[in-house]
Amino acid sequence: MKIAIVCYPTFGGSGVVATELGLELARLGHEVHFITYSQPVRLALLNPNVHYHEVNVPEYPLFHYQPYELALSSKLVDMVKLYKIELLHVHYAIPHAYAGYMAKQMLKNEGIEIPMITTLHGTDITLVGNHPHYKPAVSFSINKSDVVTSVSQSLKDDTYKLFNIKRDIHVIPNFIELDKNREFHGPCQRSLIAKKEERIITHISNFRKVKRIPDIIRIFYKIQQQIPAKLLMVGDGPEKEKAELLCQDLGILEKVIFFGNSNEIDKILSNSDLFLLPSETESFGLAALEAMAWGVPVISSNSGGLPEVNFEGVSGYLSTVGNIDEMAENALKILKEDTVLAQFKENALSVAKKFDIKHILPIYIDIYEKAIKKYTKKSKHSTKPHDD
Ligand code: GMT
Q1: CA 70 to CA 48: how far, in whole Å?
Q2: Ligand 1, closest atom to CA 122?
Q3: How far apart are CA 99 and CA 71, in angstroms?
Q4: What span, in angstroms and rounded, lies between the C-alpha atoms of 159 and 110?
Q5: What is the rounded distance in angstroms from the CA atom of residue 144 to the CA atom of residue 138?
Q6: Mutate to test the pocket of ligand 1, among 10, 11, 14, 306 (most ligand atoms within 8 A of CB)
Q7: Which of 92, 282, 306 to mutate to test the pocket of ligand 1 (most atoms within 8 A of CB)?
Q8: Could you tell me which NCBIfam families the record lists for this protein (predicted)?
Q9: What does each C-alpha distance from 98 to 57, 116, 191, 206 come to in angstroms?
Q10: How far apart are CA 271 and CA 304, in angstroms?
Q11: Distance (Å) of CA 48 to CA 29, 320, 368
């Protein structure tokens, strides 16, 4: 198949899912074209099946806002025609589904018809998309997608609750590549971060309000009162500076390391004992799954799709949003005894295995094939026979 993937190229979860999905499809021999405004952070271009096309928005003094959707839809039209792309897969509804729909219409005008799959990731529905200024355009473009997928049952339910959606939504969870070379970075690496007796607690995110960064600091504050521990804060965003100040106020700054955006996530997670994700809302919680794949148990809130990935009392514990006392108590339950911690680590890994890419990729491929088949007859540039 020839597939165009549209996504955000930054450190966010939707970009990671889109990139990993595209790379895996390319490994299977499909031709994958990433179309976005800069090269996705996890995109390695060493596979001849992987292409990257940058969307450029020319600056013009008249524009107060640069028209990215316009540039993206034009780029989509050009690339579909040039590479005979058979399917658009847009990740994150805003503004990708809207730009994708416009591209489809322009192509249709030239006798080229291809399907568009829209994957909803979370904040495109629960926070941003729901804003009255965006809502009509978001509803419209979701309804105009040929196939809509969401990363959890909870996000699917929210989408139906918040928008007037007339389409079926397929739930396809986030995934992890468990077979990848997981090199554990042993005691030597660990000793660079923490003392032998200290437990290592980690949080990774884009430090937005929705992540409830102060809760993480306060949970850690309670933990370190009872056991020796270090907190690793990985990522960057608007809440980071406040978090540093809070650590200073609580007198724990020397026990907390702020890494910023890191390319050494594997080293960090392979040395972690616990992952904290007390988010206000989380459509799935890919960061938690990535931690679990390294055998790291999770203390999270129970909002959104988190109960679909973090299993209560098995891979970790879940509490209502803001209940930092309970989260700290549960963290200590896991961390105090070596044997208990070892059991939770084992459990976390076995739950993560349910989300191995091996199980998830065939679901996307099936959806793609069915969508392409439906369109084959209609399109001028298709090469495949239609056998309906
Ligand atoms: O978590 C973020 O703020 C980034 C955001 C994104 O779109 O990049 O993540 C969302 O999509 C991820 C991948 O599907 C999900 O695992 C995250 O739970 C979701 N974030 C929220 O719902 C807050």
Answers
A1: 29
A2: 22
A3: 9
A4: 33
A5: 10
A6: 14
A7: 282
A8: thiol_BshA
A9: 17, 11, 49, 25
A10: 28
A11: 9, 47, 21
Asked whether the bond before 95 is cis by omega within 30 degrees of 0, the reply is yes
Ligand 1 contacts (CB < 6 A) are 12-15, 17, 92, 121-123, 151, 174, 206, 208, 210, 281-286
Contacts of 313 (CB under 8 A, 6+ apart): none
Q: What does the alpha-carbon distance between residue 30 and residue 150 come to, in Å, rounded to a whole number?
A: 23
Q: Where are the chain's structural domains? A: 2-175+357-382, 179-355
Closest residue by CA, ligand 1 atom 23? 282
Half-sphere exposure of 111 (CA within 13 A, CB side): 3
CB 332 within 8 A of CB 223: yes
Which tokens in the block code for residue 350? 């076995």
pTM above the 0.90 mark?
yes
E strands within 312-379? 316-319
Left, alpha or beta for 109 (phi > 0: left; psi -120 to 50: alpha)? Answer: alpha
CATH code linked to domain 2-175+357-382: 3.40.50.2000
Strands 298-301 and 256-260: unpaired
Q: Which fold has domain 179-355?
A: Rossmann fold (3.40.50)
- Which residue in the block uniquely carries the two structure tokens 């699917």? 156
Chain centre distance of CA 164: 25
C-alpha to C-alpha distances, 141 to 62, 67, 283, nearest whole angstrom:
28, 18, 20
CA–CA distance, 75 with 7 (Å, rounded to integer): 14
Q: What is the mean pLDDT of each run of 10 residues along the chain (388 residues)?
A: 94 88 95 92 79 91 88 98 98 94 97 97 81 89 96 96 93 92 69 90 96 98 98 96 97 96 90 97 96 97 98 98 98 98 98 96 97 81 48
Nearest atom (ligand 1) to Cα of 282: 22
Residue-level pLDDT at 39: 83
Select from 174, 176, 283, 298 the residue to mutate for testing ligand 1; criterion: most ligand atoms less than 8 Å from CB: 283
Query: Hey, do 2-175+357-382 and 179-355 end up sharing a CATH topology, with the first three levels equal?
Result: yes
Give 65's contacts (C-beta < 8 A, 6+ positions apart).
none
Single-letter amino acid, residue 202: T
Radius of gyration of the chain (CA): 22
Between CA 159 and CA 122 the distance in angstroms is 9
